[in-house]
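FORM 7B: Structural annotation worksheet

SECTION A. Query
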Amino acid sequence: MEFKGAMGGIYRLTEWITRLAASNLLWVLCSSPFVFCLILKLLVMNQNLTNESLQMNWAMAVLAPLTLFPATSALFTVVRKWVMGDTDSGVFRTFFKGYKENYKQSLIGGIFYTLLFVIMYVDYTVYMTQLSNLQIVGVIMLILIIILLVSMFNFFSMVAHYHMSTRQIIKNAVLLTLIRPFRVFSTMLGSAVVIYIGVKYPVLFLFFIGSVVAWFAFFNFYGTFLKMQDQMEKMKQKDEEQTSIEDKNSDNL
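SECTION B. Predicted structure
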Protein backbone atom coordinates (compact mmCIF):
# COMPACT_ATOMS: atom_id res chain seq x y z
CA MET A 1 0.00 0.00 0.00
CA GLU A 2 1.45 3.35 -1.03
CA PHE A 3 0.50 6.62 0.65
CA LYS A 4 0.48 9.95 -1.16
CA GLY A 5 0.71 13.55 -0.09
CA ALA A 6 1.33 14.42 3.55
CA MET A 7 0.61 10.87 4.71
CA GLY A 8 3.15 9.54 2.24
CA GLY A 9 5.78 11.98 3.51
CA ILE A 10 5.11 11.02 7.14
CA TYR A 11 5.26 7.33 6.24
CA ARG A 12 8.61 7.69 4.46
CA LEU A 13 10.02 9.76 7.32
CA THR A 14 8.94 7.12 9.84
CA GLU A 15 10.44 4.42 7.65
CA TRP A 16 13.82 6.20 7.52
CA ILE A 17 13.81 6.84 11.26
CA THR A 18 13.17 3.13 11.82
CA ARG A 19 15.99 2.13 9.44
CA LEU A 20 18.49 4.50 11.05
CA ALA A 21 17.55 3.50 14.58
CA ALA A 22 17.57 -0.25 13.85
CA SER A 23 20.99 -0.20 12.16
CA ASN A 24 22.44 2.03 14.89
CA LEU A 25 21.13 -0.25 17.65
CA LEU A 26 22.70 -3.27 15.94
CA TRP A 27 25.99 -1.38 15.68
CA VAL A 28 25.92 -0.46 19.38
CA LEU A 29 24.98 -4.02 20.35
CA CYS A 30 27.79 -5.65 18.36
CA SER A 31 30.38 -3.17 19.61
CA SER A 32 29.01 -3.13 23.17
CA PRO A 33 32.23 -4.35 24.91
CA PHE A 34 34.12 -1.39 23.41
CA VAL A 35 31.25 0.99 24.19
CA PHE A 36 31.14 -0.26 27.80
CA CYS A 37 34.86 0.44 28.27
CA LEU A 38 34.45 3.86 26.65
CA ILE A 39 31.68 4.77 29.11
CA LEU A 40 33.83 3.56 32.03
CA LYS A 41 36.72 5.66 30.76
CA LEU A 42 34.56 8.78 30.64
CA LEU A 43 33.40 8.09 34.20
CA VAL A 44 36.90 7.61 35.61
CA MET A 45 38.15 10.68 33.73
CA ASN A 46 35.52 12.78 35.48
CA GLN A 47 36.88 11.51 38.79
CA ASN A 48 40.53 12.10 37.77
CA LEU A 49 41.47 8.43 38.21
CA THR A 50 44.59 8.35 36.01
CA ASN A 51 45.54 4.67 36.40
CA GLU A 52 42.00 3.45 35.76
CA SER A 53 41.74 5.73 32.72
CA LEU A 54 44.95 4.27 31.32
CA GLN A 55 43.63 0.74 31.87
CA MET A 56 40.49 1.62 29.95
CA ASN A 57 42.65 2.91 27.09
CA TRP A 58 44.37 -0.45 26.80
CA ALA A 59 41.09 -2.32 27.08
CA MET A 60 39.58 -0.26 24.26
CA ALA A 61 42.69 -0.79 22.13
CA VAL A 62 42.29 -4.56 22.49
CA LEU A 63 38.51 -4.58 21.97
CA ALA A 64 38.33 -2.16 19.02
CA PRO A 65 39.62 -4.60 16.34
CA LEU A 66 37.51 -7.43 17.77
CA THR A 67 34.19 -5.60 18.11
CA LEU A 68 34.07 -1.97 16.95
CA PHE A 69 35.67 -2.43 13.53
CA PRO A 70 33.57 -5.46 12.42
CA ALA A 71 30.38 -3.78 13.69
CA THR A 72 31.22 -0.56 11.84
CA SER A 73 31.98 -2.43 8.61
CA ALA A 74 28.59 -4.13 8.92
CA LEU A 75 26.95 -0.74 9.45
CA PHE A 76 28.63 0.59 6.29
CA THR A 77 27.30 -2.46 4.43
CA VAL A 78 23.79 -1.36 5.37
CA VAL A 79 24.20 2.33 4.46
CA ARG A 80 25.88 1.35 1.18
CA LYS A 81 22.57 -0.19 0.11
CA TRP A 82 20.73 3.02 0.94
CA VAL A 83 23.16 5.32 -0.87
CA MET A 84 23.03 3.12 -3.98
CA GLY A 85 19.23 3.24 -4.00
CA ASP A 86 18.39 -0.16 -2.52
CA THR A 87 16.24 0.76 0.46
CA ASP A 88 14.14 -2.41 0.50
CA SER A 89 16.83 -4.75 1.86
CA GLY A 90 16.23 -5.88 5.43
CA VAL A 91 18.48 -4.06 7.90
CA PHE A 92 19.00 -7.08 10.17
CA ARG A 93 19.87 -9.49 7.36
CA THR A 94 22.13 -7.03 5.53
CA PHE A 95 23.94 -6.04 8.73
CA PHE A 96 24.84 -9.55 9.83
CA LYS A 97 25.69 -10.65 6.31
CA GLY A 98 28.19 -7.79 6.12
CA TYR A 99 29.42 -8.59 9.62
CA LYS A 100 30.14 -12.20 8.72
CA GLU A 101 31.65 -11.57 5.28
CA ASN A 102 33.89 -8.68 6.30
CA TYR A 103 34.90 -9.76 9.81
CA LYS A 104 38.41 -10.93 8.90
CA GLN A 105 39.29 -7.83 6.88
CA SER A 106 37.81 -5.59 9.57
CA LEU A 107 39.82 -7.36 12.25
CA ILE A 108 43.11 -7.04 10.35
CA GLY A 109 42.38 -3.43 9.41
CA GLY A 110 41.36 -2.74 13.01
CA ILE A 111 44.66 -4.05 14.32
CA PHE A 112 46.56 -1.87 11.82
CA TYR A 113 44.62 1.31 12.60
CA THR A 114 44.62 0.72 16.36
CA LEU A 115 48.39 0.21 16.46
CA LEU A 116 48.96 3.39 14.45
CA PHE A 117 46.57 5.37 16.62
CA VAL A 118 48.28 4.17 19.80
CA ILE A 119 51.76 4.98 18.48
CA MET A 120 50.74 8.40 17.16
CA TYR A 121 48.79 9.28 20.30
CA VAL A 122 51.73 8.37 22.56
CA ASP A 123 54.09 10.40 20.35
CA TYR A 124 51.69 13.35 20.35
CA THR A 125 51.38 13.25 24.16
CA VAL A 126 55.15 13.04 24.67
CA TYR A 127 55.96 15.89 22.29
CA MET A 128 53.21 18.17 23.61
CA THR A 129 53.76 17.58 27.35
CA GLN A 130 57.39 16.57 27.86
CA LEU A 131 59.33 17.99 24.93
CA SER A 132 58.21 21.61 24.80
CA ASN A 133 60.91 22.53 22.26
CA LEU A 134 59.49 20.00 19.80
CA GLN A 135 55.79 20.77 20.05
CA ILE A 136 55.70 21.38 16.29
CA VAL A 137 56.27 17.63 15.90
CA GLY A 138 53.29 17.09 18.20
CA VAL A 139 51.16 19.30 15.95
CA ILE A 140 52.27 17.26 12.92
CA MET A 141 51.35 14.06 14.76
CA LEU A 142 47.91 15.52 15.51
CA ILE A 143 47.38 16.29 11.81
CA LEU A 144 48.42 12.73 10.93
CA ILE A 145 45.98 11.37 13.52
CA ILE A 146 43.14 13.37 11.91
CA ILE A 147 44.13 12.14 8.42
CA LEU A 148 44.26 8.56 9.72
CA LEU A 149 40.84 8.97 11.34
CA VAL A 150 39.26 10.21 8.10
CA SER A 151 40.98 7.47 6.09
CA MET A 152 39.23 5.03 8.39
CA PHE A 153 35.90 6.16 6.90
CA ASN A 154 37.27 5.31 3.45
CA PHE A 155 38.52 1.97 4.79
CA PHE A 156 35.04 0.98 6.00
CA SER A 157 33.50 2.19 2.73
CA MET A 158 35.94 0.13 0.67
CA VAL A 159 35.45 -2.98 2.80
CA ALA A 160 31.71 -2.70 2.15
CA HIS A 161 32.02 -1.81 -1.55
CA TYR A 162 35.05 -3.62 -3.01
CA HIS A 163 36.47 -7.12 -3.13
CA MET A 164 40.16 -6.45 -2.51
CA SER A 165 42.88 -7.70 -0.22
CA THR A 166 43.07 -5.97 3.15
CA ARG A 167 46.45 -4.51 2.25
CA GLN A 168 45.07 -2.95 -0.94
CA ILE A 169 42.06 -1.54 0.90
CA ILE A 170 44.20 0.12 3.58
CA LYS A 171 46.61 1.51 0.97
CA ASN A 172 43.81 2.86 -1.24
CA ALA A 173 41.93 4.28 1.76
CA VAL A 174 44.95 6.35 2.78
CA LEU A 175 45.71 7.42 -0.82
CA LEU A 176 42.10 8.44 -1.45
CA THR A 177 42.19 10.54 1.70
CA LEU A 178 45.31 12.36 0.51
CA ILE A 179 44.26 12.98 -3.11
CA ARG A 180 40.72 14.14 -2.30
CA PRO A 181 41.24 16.83 0.40
CA PHE A 182 37.89 18.56 -0.18
CA ARG A 183 36.01 15.32 0.37
CA VAL A 184 38.16 14.75 3.45
CA PHE A 185 37.23 18.16 4.84
CA SER A 186 33.56 17.63 4.04
CA THR A 187 33.44 14.23 5.75
CA MET A 188 35.34 15.49 8.77
CA LEU A 189 33.22 18.62 9.15
CA GLY A 190 29.90 16.83 8.64
CA SER A 191 30.81 14.06 11.10
CA ALA A 192 32.01 16.61 13.66
CA VAL A 193 28.67 18.46 13.48
CA VAL A 194 26.68 15.24 13.92
CA ILE A 195 28.87 14.10 16.83
CA TYR A 196 28.61 17.54 18.45
CA ILE A 197 24.81 17.24 18.37
CA GLY A 198 25.19 13.78 19.88
CA VAL A 199 27.30 15.19 22.72
CA LYS A 200 24.51 17.67 23.47
CA TYR A 201 21.90 14.89 23.39
CA PRO A 202 23.72 11.63 24.34
CA VAL A 203 20.66 9.43 23.79
CA LEU A 204 21.10 10.04 20.05
CA PHE A 205 24.31 7.96 20.12
CA LEU A 206 22.15 4.95 20.93
CA PHE A 207 19.72 5.46 18.07
CA PHE A 208 21.09 7.66 15.28
CA ILE A 209 24.61 9.11 15.46
CA GLY A 210 26.53 6.07 14.19
CA SER A 211 24.21 5.34 11.27
CA VAL A 212 23.99 9.02 10.24
CA VAL A 213 27.80 9.45 10.26
CA ALA A 214 28.23 6.18 8.34
CA TRP A 215 25.64 7.24 5.75
CA PHE A 216 27.29 10.63 5.27
CA ALA A 217 30.79 9.12 5.03
CA PHE A 218 29.75 6.51 2.45
CA PHE A 219 27.77 9.13 0.52
CA ASN A 220 30.95 11.19 0.18
CA PHE A 221 33.00 8.13 -0.70
CA TYR A 222 30.51 6.99 -3.34
CA GLY A 223 30.47 10.46 -4.90
CA THR A 224 34.26 10.27 -5.19
CA PHE A 225 34.02 6.75 -6.60
CA LEU A 226 31.55 7.79 -9.31
CA LYS A 227 33.64 10.83 -10.23
CA MET A 228 36.83 8.78 -10.52
CA GLN A 229 35.00 6.12 -12.50
CA ASP A 230 33.71 8.78 -14.91
CA GLN A 231 37.22 10.20 -15.32
CA MET A 232 38.59 6.73 -16.05
CA GLU A 233 35.90 6.12 -18.65
CA LYS A 234 36.71 9.42 -20.36
CA MET A 235 40.43 8.62 -20.35
CA LYS A 236 39.74 5.17 -21.75
CA GLN A 237 37.52 6.61 -24.46
CA LYS A 238 40.16 9.22 -25.31
CA ASP A 239 42.86 6.53 -25.55
CA GLU A 240 40.64 4.42 -27.81
CA GLU A 241 39.97 7.42 -30.07
CA GLN A 242 43.69 8.21 -30.20
CA THR A 243 44.51 4.60 -31.04
CA SER A 244 41.84 4.62 -33.76
CA ILE A 245 43.29 7.80 -35.30
CA GLU A 246 46.81 6.35 -35.23
CA ASP A 247 45.58 3.14 -36.89
CA LYS A 248 43.89 5.13 -39.67
CA ASN A 249 47.01 7.19 -40.25
CA SER A 250 49.05 4.02 -40.35
CA ASP A 251 46.68 2.49 -42.96
CA ASN A 252 46.88 5.63 -45.12
CA LEU A 253 50.66 5.40 -45.16
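SECTION C. Observations
The mean pLDDT is 84. The radius of gyration is 22 Å.

SECTION D. Sign-off
Analyst initials: ____
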